[in-house]
Structure formats: C-alpha cells, structure tokens
C-alpha cells in the first residue's frame, strides 16, 4: 500500500473473521484492566492485562505509526519528550556521551542538560554539517548521535545518510527527530538511521488537540529495551489520545501538501520584504541546504523562520498587528502559529548559547497552517507594515 492508504487503513482493518464487530474505525478501549481466563499457575499469560502494559487502541496506533515510517516497530508515548526520555534512559548509562546537533529543540536540550546530566551522561553540541566537527567530538564513550532535520528553529538540513553511515563505522546509534518533516516528506530509517522519534502532537496529530510522542525502529534489540521501559516507566498515551492521533494521521498527506505549498509562498513573500534580515526555509533556492533537502526530502515542510529588522520593539510591533497567525508555542496544526524562540521554545538556553547557535532576539518561527495562503500573506503584510511604521516613528539619536 502507498502512503495515504497506509495512513488511513493500517491498524484499523475491520475484524469480521476473528469474531469482532467489523469496526471501520478502531474503537476506543478505555478499560484499565482486562479479564483473564483461569489457567494453570505455571502457564504464561497471554492477551491484554493492564493498559499501561498494552491496550488495543494503542496497539492500533503503533501499527499505523510503524507503517508510516517503514519501520518494523513503533511505540507510542504520552508526549514527544516522554518518547525521547525513554530512548535515552533505555540506551545510555552513566559515563556515556552523546553528540547532538547544535540547533535543537529547547525541550530536548533541557532533557539532556538538566535530566540526563545528573546521571552522568554528557552531551556535545556540534555542527553536524561539518564532518570534521563531528569526528573531532567523538569520544571512546560516545554512544549516540542525535539530530533533527530540519532543525528547530533554524530549519537546517543534515545529511542523514552520511551521518548514519559514519555512526555505524564507530558502533554508534543514530537517532533522528523527524517531527518537522513528518513521515510524509522524509523517512530517516530508509537512510540508515537506527531510531526515529516524533512529537505526534505536531503534524501527525495535526489539530492541536492531543499531546503525544512516538519512537520507531527496525532494530529488534533496541525495540526490546524501549518496549520494556515503555511499560516500566509508564509514560503511555490514553486510549482517547491514541484515537485522536489516529484520526489526525488519516489526513496527514493532504495536510502536508497544503502546509508545504503555503510555507513556500510565505517564505518567498518574507524573503522579498525589506523589513526582514533573513528567511530560513529549505525550499528557497537561496537556502544553503536547498539541494540537500531536495535530495533527502520529498517536500520542504510547513515551518518557516525569519529574522526581522527593527530590534525587539520591531518584533513586538509586527506581532501586535497579526490577526491570523497566533502567538503560541507548538506547531504542525491546521492553524497558523508564530513563536518567538528566545522567550518561548528556547528560553531555557542562555542568551550566549542562543546567539552561538544563531537564535537572535529578533527571530520568529512560523508554523504555516492550511488556511487560504492569500489571507496569511495579507496578515504578514499587516505585521510588516506596522513594523515599518514603528521604525519610521522611532526617535533619531
């Protein structure tokens, strides 16, 4: 089956032969526990026991998630960070070292620096587009290379195939956060990486109404460790959350096409404005990652970042004039959002750390929704005109 067909049908096949009701949509199983047959005490149990350990609705979602990433296995979690925490706690030990892309979601950096560091896990943030920088940061105890592509919030694109191949020459696992691209535009396991993580809150759910995360892999040993800790740690999604995520996934393909088409138009418009210093979007021919993105992705995604002129006051003037783009964290929903990384998603980093990566106080990240693109551009034009007006009325020193 092709992508859209899998997104709709896998995990939700009507069960008539097995005594089921023939549900066309996977039913929600809210039960926390399941009745057991009386058996010999020395016989192993089978079937469902307790919903933290396994639930039919979650199983349906996991089957669908695996199909989307062309993976053998998928595990669903209560959030993207719960998924990431389970990956790291399952596969890293005290004294281990991780190499991570320097441009990384603030929550992931917080997990690494505040949650893992006390357990003796160290992290080096490097420019993964520079092979020498990557190689020079590998240590004897390096166990994992962690990257996003495209990255959050600067939309950098890294060569997943090359990084995965290098990792495997050193016996290192490669983990890719594929949230920004979604499985529709990019499938990293096919490029050689070992583990894919997602915040399913974003494009997979797609409607800003359910928080969740996922891990996909085709490595049985890795899966066994993750599956154990999914149960042992217990950060699993509710059956209703699984249902909402499955419902969102069914329209993923058509949503991503619209997200990407709108984002391309928005990026081109922002690039043409005199009030914008720089636009970050891999779909622009001027972007240094454009050719790699063309080879590695089947579409450029719905995220755009832009560095505005006019300082922080100019940013405030721009934001205050917007009527469609909503100032809010998160991304990937059908509605358009704008985020100020320095004070929102990446506020946990120091000012020096942000500037070293390239996150300025005048950077904005746009999650471009699927509204009529003319309305979105008119909204941006309204904001930029207010920024320009603000700049013109500023007193001269």
From TrEMBL:
This is Cystathionine gamma-synthase. Keywords: Pyridoxal phosphate. Its cofactor is pyridoxal 5'-phosphate. SUPFAM superfamilies: PLP-dependent transferases. It comes from Candidatus Marsarchaeota G2 archaeon BE_D. InterPro entries: Cys/Met-Metab_PyrdxlP-dep_enz (IPR000277), Cys_met_metab_PP (IPR054542), PyrdxlP-dep_Trfase (IPR015424), PyrdxlP-dep_Trfase_major (IPR015421), PyrdxlP-dep_Trfase_small (IPR015422). Belongs to the trans-sulfuration enzymes family. The keyword DNA repair does not apply.
């Amino acid at each position: 089956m092709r992508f859209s067909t899998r997104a709709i049908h896998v995990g939700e096949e009507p069960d008539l032969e097995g005594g089921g009701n023939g549900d066309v949509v996977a039913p929600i199983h809210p039960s926390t526990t399941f009745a057991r047959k009386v058996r010999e005490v020395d016989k192993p149990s089978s079937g469902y026991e307790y919903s933290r350990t396994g639930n039919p609705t979650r199983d349906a979602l996991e089957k669908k998630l695996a199909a989307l990433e062309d993976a053998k296995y998928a595990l669903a979690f209560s959030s993207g960070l719960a998924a990431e925490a389970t990956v790291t706690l399952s596969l890293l030990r005290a004294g281990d070292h991780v190499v991570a892309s320097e441009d990384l979601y603030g929550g992931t950096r917080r997990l690494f620096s505040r949650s893992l560091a006390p357990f003796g896990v160290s992290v080096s943030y490097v420019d993964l587009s520079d092979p020498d920088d990557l190689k020079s940061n590998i240590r004897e105890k390096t166990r994992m290379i962690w990257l996003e592509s495209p990255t959050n919030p600067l939309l950098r694109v890294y060569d997943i195939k090359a990084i995965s191949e290098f990792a495997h020459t050193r016996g290192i696992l490669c983990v890719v956060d594929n949230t920004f691209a979604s499985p529709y535009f990019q499938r990293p396991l096919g490029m050689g990486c070992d583990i894919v993580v997602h915040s399913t809150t974003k494009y997979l759910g797609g409607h800003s109404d359910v928080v969740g995360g996922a891990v996909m892999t085709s490595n049985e040993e890795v899966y066994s460790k993750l599956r154990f800790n999914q149960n042992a740690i217990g950060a699993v999604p509710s059956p209703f959350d699984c249902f909402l995520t499955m419902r969102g996934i069914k329209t993923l393909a058509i949503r991503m096409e619209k997200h990407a088409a709108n984002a391309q138009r928005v990026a081109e418009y922002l690039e043409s404005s005199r009030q914008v210093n720089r636009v970050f979007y891999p779909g622009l021919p001027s972007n240094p990652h454009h050719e790699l993105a063309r080879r590695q992705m089947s579409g450029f995604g719905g995220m755009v970042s832009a560095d505005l002129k006019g300082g922080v006051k100019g940013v405030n003037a721009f934001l205050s004039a917007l009527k469609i783009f909503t100032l809010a964290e998160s991304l990937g929903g059908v509605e358009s959002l704008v985020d100020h990384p320095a004070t929102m998603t990446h506020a946990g980093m120091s000012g020096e750390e942000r500037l070293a990566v390239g996150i300025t106080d005048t950077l904005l990240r746009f999650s471009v929704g699927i509204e009529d693109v003319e309305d979105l551009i008119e909204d941006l034009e309204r904001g930029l005109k207010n920024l320009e007006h603000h700049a013109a009325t500023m007193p001269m020193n």
